[in-house]
Write a structure and sequence with these properties.
Layout: H1 9-20, H2 48-51, E1 56-60, H3 65-72, E2 77-82, H4 85-100, H5 103-110, H6 120-127, H7 133-143, H8 148-152, H9 165-171, H10 177-187, E3 191-196, H11 199-205, E4 210-215, H12 225-233, E5 236-247, H13 253-262, E6 266-268, E7 276-281
Parallel strand pairs: 1-2, 1-4, 2-3, 4-5
Antiparallel strand pairs: 5-7, 6-7
Helix pairs in contact: 1-7, 3-10, 4-6, 4-7, 4-10
Length: about 280
């Protein structure tokens, strides 16, 4: 259990300010304080069917987008995990913003190519009081010294990508007004438990819970298929439970597909070769 803990707030603030002040280059950063992903690389819209009406979900935290999309689809409990201590604070920020802001303002603050020109500090004040206490302290500590534009364009986050709004809405469905409304409504009763843990540790500690969906994002891109399957077998799934992984690699997909098929699952290849969805039924 030692590795499976809530985020250390004091250390997170210390490292974040060091990064913002250019005192901690990437090569010297501990893995627990890596760059925060701004938004998902996965096409969540192409996974709409597997997210639909999944009440109990486990997911990697990353940008927080998959967690919010699970809530928009009716998830009542989401257990989310990441080795990055910063990810939970960003998830809390996006979640509070989604609850209080309009859809267009959420897009302006986190997804627009011109986020630093959209009065984001004023937007922050609109949802600040909805942040959980520890996340409030974290973001207040950073915004006391830096504007949101400075923070979001800093090395605290992954590099900015120029992506059109239409492409983002297709990738992240809750940027559409109708799905965004569902997110706001469902978030009233949703419970999110965010932990600092790697995939292996989370799969073991969460094994006493039952899930309708385990969303592992691009984990198979970073570990061997055999190891990936060992980890996902640790999760206890409901009768119709599904484990979903995405891959952005162009190599070795046939090997992974064959392994999934040997496990009585199925492989669904999307039209876009750079984004394949691997689904395993248990």
């Amino acid at each position: 259990m030692e590795q499976f803990h809530k985020t250390n707030l004091e250390n997170a603030i210390y490292f974040a300010l060091d990064i913002l002040n250019h005192n901690l280059p990437d090569e010297e950063r501990p893995i627990e304080y890596g760059r925060i992903k701004r938004f998902t690389d996965d096409s969540l819209g192409s996974c709409a069917k597997v997210f639909s009406e999944r009440k109990n979900v486990a997911a990697t935290t990353e940008s927080g987008d998959a967690v919010l999309y699970a809530i928009a689809n009716g998830a009542e409990t989401v257990d989310t995990f990441s080795t990055n201590n910063f990810s939970k604070y960003f998830l809390d920020m996006k979640r509070a913003a989604a609850y209080k802001l309009k859809c267009g303002s959420l897009y302006d603050m986190f997804y627009s190519n011109d986020f630093d020109k959209n009065g984001s500090n004023k937007l922050f004040l609109k949802f600040r009081d909805n942040l959980p206490f520890r996340s409030l302290i974290f973001w207040d500590s950073l915004l006391e010294h830096h504007s949101w534009g400075q923070i979001y364009s800093s090395d605290l986050f992954t590099e900015r990508k120029e992506i059109s709004k239409d492409e983002l809405v297709e990738r992240i469905p809750f940027l559409d007004e109708d799905v965004f409304f569902d997110l706001k409504q469902n978030d009233l009763n949703a419970i999110v438990n965010a932990y600092t843990a790697n995939f292996e540790t989370a799969s073991k500690v969460l094994s006493d819970r039952s899930y309708d969906l385990v969303y592992t994002s691009d984990s198979p891109d970073h570990i061997l298929p055999e190891i990936y399957l060992d980890y996902v077998r640790n999760f206890n799934m409901t009768p119709n439970g599904i484990v979903v992984a995405t891959s952005h690699l162009s190599k070795d997909d046939s090997k992974f597909r064959d392994m999934i098929l040997r496990e009585d699952g199925f492989f669904e290849k999307k039209s876009n070769d750079s984004s394949r969805v691997l689904v395993k039924r248990f």
